[in-house]
């Protein structure tokens, strides 16, 4: 059992820190104030849990799994939509809004992938069924990796549940992402119809109608993005976030995703020429996926609202200069060191306020 520890002193307010006498003392006071802010604590958690590495790995995994996931989703969509070219173009435009420059559409033939090439005509054959099964597994595995990364930002090390239930969570998440894209396509068509109806009924000009459509599309995109993150955090990752933190996190993510989507689409549209446009689409797609995953993990760390991390300055606190300097069965004496029972991470032996080390077990 850990001894009772005195809570740390609260960080100074910014005004008090800025009015601290002495340049060096003022700089230290401002640094102390910054480390106590919610943004700094979130960034510290993001860095401590290797958020950058997780984001890079997820971006690469997403890029490698994108073809399989799109093949599965597009084959299903085409079986539902059939020969309705307007709906197909609307869905392709929605996918391009989410992943700028990915698919070719009727009005823009500079996308990276021709949607028709994603449709498998041999879906009822053994080879086609296996291909779709591999695509589904790829999408489910990707969502599972994303959920694990989200849990890491909250400090949730594992889900104590049956593996089949976890697999079901991931499958629900993959289906939710596909449903989000489909909802975006339907919402885009609905907003076009509402815009035409509004202009006819109110006699509004093209400028006002276009503004109405654009505002409505952005609002629906914000709602869809918030719903997707809610699904990932609450259902797939299994994290129970307090209401206020969850609401602010969803709002922050939706706004950031809208900005990234707008910038990505603008970057692709600003490049002229088939060759340059294709290169710009690929670079923008990779960068956009990477930034979006970073936003998801950073917002998750912000919603976690973690306490300020305690810096470790003494090598002896983590047995850094010993051999081995980690917990291992090879050296049984290391098993007596304080360590996390699930991950095996070494816990630092921090001093108590009276100067004695905290001998946690």
Automatic annotation (TrEMBL):
Disordered: annotated segments: 331-361
Predominant subcellular localization, coarse grouping: membrane
Domain of life: Bacteria
Biased composition annotated in UniProt, kind: Acidic residues: 351-361
UniProt membrane topology term: Multi-pass membrane protein
Subcellular location: Cell membrane
One Pfam family this sequence matches: Virul_fac_BrkB
Bilayer-spanning residue ranges: 53-77, 123-150, 171-191, 211-233, 245-263, 275-297
Keywords, in A-Z order: Cell membrane, Membrane, Transmembrane, Transmembrane helix
Protein name stated in the entry: YihY/virulence factor BrkB family protein
């Amino acid at each position: 059992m850990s001894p009772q520890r005195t809570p740390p002193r609260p960080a100074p307010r910014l005004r008090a820190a800025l009015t601290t006498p002495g340049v060096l003392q003022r700089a230290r006071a401002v640094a102390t104030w910054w480390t106590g802010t919610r943004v700094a604590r979130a960034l510290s958690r993001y860095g401590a849990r290797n958020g950058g590495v997780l984001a890079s790995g997820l971006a690469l995994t997403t890029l490698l799994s994108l073809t399989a996931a799109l093949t599965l989703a597009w084959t299903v969509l085409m079986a539902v939509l059939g020969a309705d070219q307007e709906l197909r173009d609307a869905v392709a435009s929605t996918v391009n809004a989410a992943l700028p420059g990915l698919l070719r559409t009727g009005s823009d033939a500079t996308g990276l992938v021709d949607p028709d090439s994603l449709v498998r005509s041999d879906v009822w054959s053994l080879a086609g069924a296996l291909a779709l099964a591999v695509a589904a597994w790829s999408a489910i595995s990707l969502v599972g990796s994303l959920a694990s990364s989200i849990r890491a930002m909250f400090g949730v090390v594992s889900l104590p549940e049956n593996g089949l239930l976890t697999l079901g969570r991931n499958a629900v998440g993959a289906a939710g992402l596909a449903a989000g894209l489909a909802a975006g396509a339907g919402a885009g068509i609905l907003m076009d119809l509402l815009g035409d109806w509004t202009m006819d009924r109110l006699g509004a000009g093209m400028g006002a109608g276009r503004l109405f459509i654009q505002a409505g599309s952005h609002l629906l995109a914000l709602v869809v993005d918030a719903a997707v993150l809610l699904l990932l955090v609450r259902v797939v990752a299994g994290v129970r976030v307090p209401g206020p933190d969850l609401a602010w996190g969803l709002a922050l993510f939706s706004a950031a995703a809208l900005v990234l989507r707008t910038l990505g689409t603008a970057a692709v549209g600003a490049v002229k020429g088939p060759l340059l446009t294709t290169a710009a689409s690929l670079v923008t797609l990779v960068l956009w996926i990477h930034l979006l995953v970073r936003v998801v993990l950073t917002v998750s760390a912000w919603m976690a609202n973690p306490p300020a991390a305690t810096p470790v300055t003494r090598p002896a606190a983590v047995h850094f200069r010993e051999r081995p300097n980690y917990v291992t069965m090879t050296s049984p004496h290391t098993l007596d060191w304080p360590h996390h029972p699930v991950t095996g991470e070494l816990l630092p032996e921090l001093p108590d306020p009276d100067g004695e080390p905290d001998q946690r077990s």
